[in-house]
Design a protein that fits this description.
CATH class: Alpha Beta
Number of domains: 1
Strand order of the largest sheet: 1-2-3-4-7-8-9-11
Radius of gyration: 19 Å
Largest sheet: 8 strands, parallel, barrel
Strand content: 15-25%
Order of helices and strands: EHEHEHEHHEEEHEHEHHEHEH
Number of helices: 11
CATH topology: TIM Barrel
Length: 357
């Protein structure tokens, strides 16, 4: 198993200035490099405290690249529908070169109606734009004098500069909330998988992981090269009760942030997002204790979190990568650093599955 950290801010100006949040995150980036974590990631969202402090993950990751030498740097995820593929391909290729080949490029469809409205993008076009723009970006990365005549964009012949540092291109991840078809499509295309266990049951996620691996092999891709990243909120403390108290507070604040961001679904529907009208009531869903009991949160003492991770490895395989949501901004940076140090010193070395650098 591999472990890294992912930043998903759920704070806004009323909580702390953006400058302070970024400074705290970069302190944790430095610690991730020091402690041997595999990667650092950050999301892309707009307008709301739900991710709004990170409208451009490439900018953040470029700064992280300048202060690290080893950790991989991941978008988690960038949204191709909101940018021209030539622009996004160039930004990502530049980041891959700045970091000397440490980019993991994860792409997501987005799901907030207010974001689509602001960019003037119909939500019904979401999946088509997602698929087209990823293919256009890959073409730009791998082909000189590239020509593209798609439904939404046309360009060429053009040769992108800089060429990606990683050849033929950086690893491509597809982010999916729960669609089993999206998992299969990603595998067939040779894209890696990034998902959030909080969106489904253990059995549902295990089925999706199995489908992804099966379709990956059936498509002729090398079996050992499939990569699966799972994202979990995480709080670790020497004292179990203290960890749960802090974890419950953080999860509660995160819930307030997402609840505010999804309210537009009360008056929105889209064929590209069937059933999403229901998420306007997300604040009424499972309690903290239920989520913790279902292993949707990694919260506890070193011993209890180690047991959670051993269970996760048993359910989904010991070759997965875990991205730890370590700092949404509501707890202190010292709390996040404590979690990271306890994980590195007392959790990872004792895992049944072991860890890899």
């Amino acid at each position: 198993m591999k472990f890294g950290i992912v930043f998903f801010p759920t704070v806004g100006p009323g909580d702390k200035p953006a400058t302070r949040y970024y400074d705290e995150c970069f302190e944790l980036v430095d610690l991730a490099e020091e402690l041997g974590f595999d990667h650092v990631k950050i999301v892309e969202h707009y307008f709301f405290s739900y991710g709004g402090y990170s409208p451009d993950p490439v900018t953040f990751l470029a700064a992280a690249a300048g202060r690290t030498k080893r950790v991989r740097l991941g978008t988690s995820a960038t949204i191709p529908a909101f940018q021209h593929p030539v622009k996004l391909a160039g930004k990502l290729a530049m980041l891959d070169n700045i970091s000397h080949g440490r980019l993991d490029a994860a792409f997501g469809r987005a799901f907030l109606p207010d974001e689509f409205k602001a960019f003037g993008i119909p939500m019904d076009e979401s999946k088509a734009r997602f698929v087209e723009n990823i293919e256009a970006i890959k073409l730009l990365w791998t082909t000189e004098n590239a020509v593209w005549n798609g439904e939404f964009h046309q360009f060429g012949p053009v040769t992108l500069l800089p060429r990606p540092f990683q050849q033929p291109h950086p690893p491509v991840f597809v982010t999916t909330a729960r669609s089993i078809d999206s998992c299969a499509e990603a595998a067939r295309a040779g894209h890696h998988l990034q998902t959030v266990p909080n969106a489904m049951s253990v059995e549902e996620l295990a089925e999706r992981v199995t489908v992804f691996r099966s379709e990956w092999t059936a498509a002729g891709h090398p079996a050992g090269e499939a990569r699966i990243h799972l994202t979990y909120p995480c709080v670790v403390s020497e004292n179990l009760d203290e960890a749960k108290k802090k974890g419950e507070f953080d999860e509660g604040r995160n819930g307030v942030a997402i609840s505010a961001a999804v309210q537009a679904w009360r008056t929105t529907s889209s064929k590209a997002y069937p059933g999403y009208e229901k998420i306007a009531d997300i604040g009424k869903r499972d309690s903290f204790e239920t989520k913790l009991g279902d292993n949707k949160l990694l919260v506890g003492s070193p011993d209890t979190v180690r047991q959670q991770l051993d269970d996760i490895a048993e359910w989904y395989g010991d070759d997965i990568t875990i991205s730890l949501g370590i700092h949404s901004g509501h707890l202190t940076v010292e709390d996040a650093a404590t979690s990271m140090r306890l994980l590195a010193d007392q959790v990872f070395p004792k895992l049944s599955a072991g860890t890899t650098p």
